[in-house]
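C-alpha cells for chain A. Residues wanted.
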C-alpha cells in the first residue's frame, strides 16, 4: 500500500517505481519516476557528489541529510528497495542517482579499506584490531548505521569483548574508541576508497 508523506513543498506518495507529487497549493499532481524524485531531492540538499561526501564522513551531518530525505519519504531502506540495490552503500546509491557516480556495494568499500588502509589497523593492538574488523563486517552487511556507538557494542560479536567501557579501554579510553570509529568511517568514504 502506498505511503503518503508531507513536507515543506507539498506531499508525495510513493507507489511502485513512481512518485506522485502534489504541489504546495494541492492543485497540481505530477508523476515522477522514483529515481528522478530521489535524485532531485538529494541535489536540493547538496549541490555535488563532493559536498555529499564531505557531509557523509561526519556522522552528525550525515544524519541531518538522512533526516531531511526521510521527511520526503526517502529512507535508505525505501531507496534500496525501490532501486533493487539492497547491497549498495546508501552514500553510493545517493551519488549514483543524483550525480551519476559509479555504484558500489558496502562489501566493496569494506574490502578496499582492509586492503589499502592496513596502516590504520596496524596502529592498534590485536583486540582493538579485532573490534575494528568486526565493526567493518557489520558495516559491510548492514550499513553505516552499524557504526553508531555505543549501541553496536552491545550486540554480538562485539559484546563478546566485554562492556562498552571494557571495549573502550583497548583503545585507550572512550575518546580513543570514538576517534578510531570516526576515522574508520572517514576511510570508508575517502575519495580514493571510492575509486
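Reply:
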Amino acid at each position: 500500500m502506498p505511503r503518503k508523506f508531507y513536507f515543506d513543498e507539498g506531499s508525495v506518495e510513493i507507489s511502485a517505481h513512481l512518485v506522485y507529487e502534489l504541489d504546495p497549493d494541492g492543485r497540481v499532481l505530477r508523476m515522477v519516476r522514483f529515481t528522478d524524485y530521489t535524485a532531485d531531492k538529494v541535489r536540493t540538499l547538496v549541490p555535488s557528489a563532493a559536498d555529499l561526501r564531505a557531509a557523509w564522513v561526519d556522522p552528525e551531518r550525515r544524519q541531518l541529510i538522512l533526516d531531511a530525505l526521510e521527511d520526503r519519504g526517502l529512507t535508505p531502506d525505501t531507496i534500496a528497495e525501490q532501486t533493487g540495490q539492497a547491497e549498495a552503500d546508501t552514500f553510493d546509491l545517493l551519488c549514483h542517482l543524483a550525480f551519476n557516480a559509479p555504484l558500489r556495494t558496502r562489501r566493496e568499500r569494506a574490502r578496499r579499506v582492509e586492503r589499502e588502509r592496513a596502516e590504520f589497523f596496524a596502529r592498534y593492538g590485536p583486540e582493538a584490531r579485532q573490534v575494528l574488523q568486526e565493526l567493518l563486517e557489520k558495516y559491510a552487511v548492514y550499513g553505516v548505521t552499524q557504526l553508531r556507538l555505543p549501541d553496536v557494542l552491545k550486540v554480538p560479536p562485539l559484546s563478546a569483548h566485554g562492556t562498552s567501557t571494557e571495549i573502550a579501554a583497548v583503545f585507550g579510553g572512550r575518546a580513543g574508541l570514538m576517534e578510531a570509529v570516526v576515522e574508520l568511517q572517514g576511510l570508508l568514504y575517502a575519495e580514493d576508497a571510492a575509486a
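Residues 106-194 form one domain. The beta strands are 3-7, 10-15, 18-22, 29-33.
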